[in-house]
Amino acid sequence: MSEPATTVRVNLAERGYDIHIGQGLLAGAASFITDRRKAKHVVLITDDNVDGLHADRVADQLVEAGLEVNVMTVDAGEASKDVDVAAELWETMLQEGTDRQSVVLAVGGGVVGDLAGWVAASYARGLTFFQAPTTLLSQVDSSVGGKVGVNLPGAKNMVGAFWQPHGVVIDIDVLSTLTDRDYRAGLAEVVKYGVIMDADFFAMLEANADAINNRDPQTLIQIIARSCQLKAEVVEADEREESGRRAILNYGHTFGHALEAATGYGPLLHGEGVSIGMVCASRLAESMGLIDSGTTSRQVALLEKLGLPTSLPAGQDPAELVSLMWRDKKVQDGKIRFVLPTRIGEVQLFDSPAQQAVVESMR
Amino acid sequence: MSEPATTVRVNLAERGYDIHIGQGLLAGAASFITDRRKAKHVVLITDDNVDGLHADRVADQLVEAGLEVNVMTVDAGEASKDVDVAAELWETMLQEGTDRQSVVLAVGGGVVGDLAGWVAASYARGLTFFQAPTTLLSQVDSSVGGKVGVNLPGAKNMVGAFWQPHGVVIDIDVLSTLTDRDYRAGLAEVVKYGVIMDADFFAMLEANADAINNRDPQTLIQIIARSCQLKAEVVEADEREESGRRAILNYGHTFGHALEAATGYGPLLHGEGVSIGMVCASRLAESMGLIDSGTTSRQVALLEKLGLPTSLPAGQDPAELVSLMWRDKKVQDGKIRFVLPTRIGEVQLFDSPAQQAVVESMR
Ligand SMILES: NC(=O)c1ccc[n+]([C@@H]2O[C@H](COP(=O)([O-])OP(=O)(O)OC[C@H]3O[C@@H](n4cnc5c(N)ncnc54)[C@H](O)[C@@H]3O)[C@@H](O)[C@H]2O)c1
Ligand SMILES: NC(=O)c1ccc[n+]([C@@H]2O[C@H](COP(=O)([O-])OP(=O)(O)OC[C@H]3O[C@@H](n4cnc5c(N)ncnc54)[C@H](O)[C@@H]3O)[C@@H](O)[C@H]2O)c1
Ligand SMILES: [Zn+2]
Ligand SMILES: [Zn+2]
């Protein structure tokens, strides 16, 4: 028995698209694509974990549906979000006769989605792009919003584009093979949406923490759909990160990024950094009198229930982290913008709180 | 005494921009930029020919105006329109602290413009971009329309984007240092605009061939402005090459590209290939009964007056060129679309004329 599927529409004028969320949806990937685009040739990009687990089935099914398919597999892991890996993909695509009528399909986590999206955005000045995200993080976050790209040495996502997919198909069944840690890392972004935009959703997460931990299908569809919807609302209001609205998605991320950088990208998953970062941001908001301590402790309690870390890893020095933050390239005129909660369900942007307060928030 | 400058507006909704055309305009590049964008940091990209001739003056002037400037110089020539060269530029830009507030300024020909535009489009998901084209070809063609990108081995412009500049400043004085051949190559595209869109303009070129050959400033401003205007009209109607309208700009190019490829990109400049290609296309139109021979001979006469080649280079075999055309990646289902004149000032698209007729048109 499958839970009923659901659709979230991302409204972006002529670039609007559907996100289908349900069980077993990958079995219908071929018609999902051909319903939306007369395609004959699909470049399927995946990584070497997801290939054997899920992508090969998708490829078989596309072939059965009469499509010409080239599967291109990159190494699993962040190191594949790389300029040279993209260049290899472009060349392989050229050799395989990829042209403007070809479509690119990403089957994998955020790494595959960001890389494949970038390759799609730039080959022949832009190919039609579909996403089948396979990690919770990519299902609730990276597959929505059109940010694609690769890293430069020392600078994440420094080369890329805004390139909206033509459609996103989220099959929650693929989550069954995901490690516990990767699953929980995705949950951090889910909690984030509750804090920044939707108190009811936050309360729903509190009430259903057990079902979430058990990866209950109905609950999964519900929280993924709501997360996509909330992110879509922000993206619709600020597609190209111009008005500032999109910045609210960075709640917890200023701290999180500093932690990821300080620990050398690896020991701490992105979602884990965000989890700790949200707690720090909330404490900072407390110290500024924006919220009371109960608002922070609700977040800590929920994150802990979901198995996420809420305090700095051993050996991390708050003062050093703060100087890392202020050295970041994005800092303009010495000002950092923090996203801080004013209650559960609402955040605001604050420019440059006192560095000492930021240090304190991490203790 | 300077001739009065003129402005062509490219109307593309929120991406519209001005093209300033006149004498000595590079001396005002700093205010041209800062009038349009609050900028502090300029990444100036040029090549090693243009650097000493013109770009260093521009850089000095930007510095005098209080801007922070990094000059990045690539080797002159098509080989710099390359994935690895772009990657080096991205890394250098990162090291120099380039951020979203930085702007990129291209000072050079089409190679520099396409490369710098691509780097601008992709760094930090898109920086503001200005062009100061310094060849006639880039002034009348490549700097208008937003196509930017680099080559893959064996495939020109295969990686790129549509990325409109924020403004284009065309200083005709820089043309004084351009070789005769490069100057004439640019004229081929000017003649093209007359044939495809504007009989009066074509007649004006016929009447002013001597002034054009003498690079008379007033005439230059006039023909560059009209060329930009005509290209802008096409681009406004079909910004992303979707409706087919933009295809008319390829008049002479199907033949021209085959010639460039057959001669190994080098012996024949792009504009020279286009010049020969227009004559072939016009003969093909004749053989199909679209035009009389007088329409072709007017083009031949004008092109010859402007010092451009109008027949195949020695040793080129029409039959081989035709098979080259049909092997091109862009050919779909064995069909090639030719842009053919129906009179001076008008072209139409024709799918796949008989291959034998195409062969004959090149004899
Ligand atoms: N574009 C955006 O807006 C955006 C937003 C957030 C994050 N991101 C990016 O997303 C990336 C992180 O995404 P991620 O966490 O999905 O990382 P990931 O793609 O590296 O996936 C994590 C691991 O899970 C494996 N995996 C994927 N699906 C699986 C499955 N169904 N079963 C078993 N294993 C599976 C992968 O092979 C990988 O080893 C980062 O590069 C980050 O910058 C982008
Ligand atoms: N983006 C587009 O829409 C578009 C349209 C047409 C052509 N193009 C591209 O443009 C490129 C060709 O442009 P191009 O002909 O300007 O080539 P180019 O940039 O290589 O310039 C030709 C030569 O002239 C030199 N030069 C430039 N300005 C000079 C000056 N003022 N004085 C003396 N020397 C000077 C250059 O160093 C180079 O050696 C090709 O790569 C082609 O694909 C792009
Ligand atoms: Zn995140
Ligand atoms: Zn051309």
From TrEMBL, chains A, B:
Highest taxon in the source lineage: Bacteria
An annotated GO cellular component: cytoplasm
A Pfam cross-reference name: DHQS_C
InterPro entries referenced in this protein's UniProt entry, alphabetically: Dehydroquinate_synthase (IPR050071), DHQ_synth_AroB (IPR016037), DHQ_synth_fam (IPR030963), DHQS/DOIS_N (IPR030960), DHQS_C (IPR056179)
Catalytic activity: 7-phospho-2-dehydro-3-deoxy-D-arabino-heptonate = 3-dehydroquinate + phosphate
Cofactor: record remark: Binds 1 divalent metal cation per subunit. Can use either Co(2+) or Zn(2+).
Record-listed Zn(2+) binding positions: 189, 253, 270
Record GO terms (molecular function): 3-dehydroquinate synthase activity; metal ion binding; nucleotide binding
3-dehydroquinate synthase C-terminal domain span: 186-331
EC number: 4.2.3.4
Pathway: Metabolic intermediate biosynthesis; chorismate biosynthesis; chorismate from D-erythrose 4-phosphate and phosphoenolpyruvate: step 2/7
Boundaries of every 3-dehydroquinate synthase N-terminal domain copy: 72-184
GO biological process, one term: amino acid biosynthetic process
Localization in the cell: Cytoplasm
Protein name: 3-dehydroquinate synthase
Organism this protein belongs to: Posidoniimonas polymericola
